[in-house]
Design a protein that fits this description.
The protein is α/β, with parallel strands linked by helices. Helices cover 33% and strands 21% of the residues.
Length: 442
């Protein structure tokens, strides 16, 4: 990892980014000189692109980041996004044209998951640092293409795993690093999504495996990345089961989308997108371009992802992870337990959004059980302040140093996606054991 001082010496045009740390160091080191701000382009101007990486970055990081271009396949949405972000930059529907015209230092990739790899590979080829939202890739061919492009280019990829940045998530990492439970032997990780958050994945592009890699990749890659990061080990083999028993074909009626639905009165999952003014601007007003319906029917028969998933992962260090995710629960939450030879660490969350209650409990074998106090206040904003944390890491190189290893690059992006990919390959083959090494050459 390069020091901040060294990075500050790199001129904007010449800087060769090798890690996310260097990217942030290069921009923050140059903060005082506006001509040295990081020239940032963004592709994928939907919710995440506009609301997480657009508006707050333009507002709070203008000393270190300068937007130079926005791109989306939807020409109306990209213009609306520009207006919402409040930057006076050219907009594009062609990525290469954007990069060649605006010559960015880095590209933020917030398109749908199955398209990230195209822009990662192309950025590497064009000499631009890719910063990608999770999931980095959704199948093994995409993963291999990124690994190969990275090797050819010598540049790294930054993957924005905000789930590492929650206050409790960092505390768990610290406790495991301090070996609070001794050697971890097994981990249980259960994810509960309710009929609002969970259903939302079945309203739009995520419901097709070819777009999301199923929720085992799109959603669970957060959790697999956390597991890899907490355990400091690599997954070796995976087996899984999955089923679709609630959404999709599991209903007697269906429509195209809620606004036009004749069953809206009787459908418990009716959703009124027009109540969200930002969504009206970004989606409803842009439908004429691509037919993307933000309030698509959760009962669509084309749905080919799972709503119940059960996965087993064996790690190189011998740890066994048991993971489940269920997406139609009456409440949101997580239940994560680390079983060690000296004790047990339980991390429980109940509720979501602004109503989340979390507890981290440490119980020593033959000893006391206590709730672990949090030593840090949660920051304001989305995902319990975790999004503010990831923005600081990417654009200000904070925290620096990084004792909890919050930074994530291509390897972390690959291994987290690969667990999900191995899991859906296993499901496709009736629970067969899938070895990570058989999917790609890491
Ligand atoms: N880390 C997190 O907490 C978090 C939260 C939400 C979303 N995300 C990630 O952000 C990404 C976007 O999710 P979203 O909810 O904003 O979706 P979205 O549907 O709101 O936005 C996706 C955008 O990508 C555009 N797009 C689709 N295909 C494209 C292509 N080939 N080229 C260019 N643009 C294309 C769409 O037109 C749309 O504007 C996903 O990868 C998702 O996993 C991460």
């Amino acid at each position: 990892m390069q020091s901040q001082k060294h990075s500050a010496l790199l001129s904007r045009r010449n800087f060769v980014v090798t890690t996310g740390a260097t990217l942030a160091a290069a921009s923050s080191g140059a903060a005082s000189q506006s001509s040295k701000r990081l020239r940032l382009a963004l592709v994928g101007t939907g919710m995440r692109g506009t609301l997480t990486w657009g508006i707050p970055v333009a507002k709070n990081y203008s000393d270190v980041v300068e937007f130079v271009g926005l791109c989306d396949i939807n020409s109306k949405r990209v213009k609306m996004s520009r207006e919402m972000i409040g930057v006076n930059v050219p907009v594009f529907t062609d990525f290469d044209e954007m990069v060649k015209t605006t010559r960015p230092d880095a590209v933020m990739i917030t398109t749908i998951c199955a398209t990230h790899y195209r822009y990662i590979v192309r950025s590497l080829e064009l000499g631009v640092h890719p910063i990608t939202e999770k999931a980095m890739c959704t199948d093994e061919q995409q993963c291999q293409a990124i690994l190969d492009a990275q090797r050819r280019s010598g540049r790294n990829v930054t993957v924005t795993f905000n789930a590492r940045h929650g206050v409790e998530d960092k505390k768990v990492k610290q406790l495991l690093m301090e070996r609070a439970v001794g050697d971890v032997i097994a981990v249980d990780f259960h994810e509960y999504l309710n009929t609002s958050h969970g259903a939302d994945y079945f309203r739009r592009w995520h419901r097709l495996k070819e777009n999301s890699g199923t929720l085992l990749v799109h959603k669970a890659c957060h959790h697999f990345d956390q597991a890899n990061w907490w355990l400091e080990s690599d997954p070796v083999e995976v087996s899984a089961w999955g089923q679709l028993k609630y959404y999709g074909h599991n209903n007697s009626f269906r429509g195209t989308h809620c606004r036009a639905c004749p069953y809206r009165k009787q459908c418990k999952l009716y959703y009124d997108v027009t109540k969200n003014p930002q969504f009206v601007k970004l989606y409803v007003d842009c439908e004429s371009e691509d037919g993307y319906l933000r309030d698509g029917c959760v009962w669509a028969e084309s749905t080919n992802i799972y709503d119940s998933m059960s996965v087993r992962v064996r790690y190189r260090n011998g740890v066994i992870l048991t993971y489940t995710a269920n997406t139609y629960q009456p409440y949101e939450g997580q239940s994560i337990s680390f079983m060690g030879n000296k004790g047990r660490l339980d991390y429980q969350t109940f509720g979501g959004g602004g109503h989340k209650v979390s507890e981290v409990r440490l119980t020593r074998t033959f000893g006391k059980s206590e709730i672990v106090p949090m030593t840090e206040q949660a920051r304001a904003g989305e995902h319990g302040g975790a999004d503010a944390g990831i923005r600081d890491l990417v654009f200000r190189n904070l925290p620096n140093p990084d004792p909890l290893s919050l930074r994530a690059g291509m390897r972390a992006g690959a291994l987290s996606s690969l667990i999900g990919i191995a899991a859906y390959r296993s499901i496709e083959q009736n629970g067969r054991l899938v070895r990570i090494n058989d999917l790609v050459k890491l």
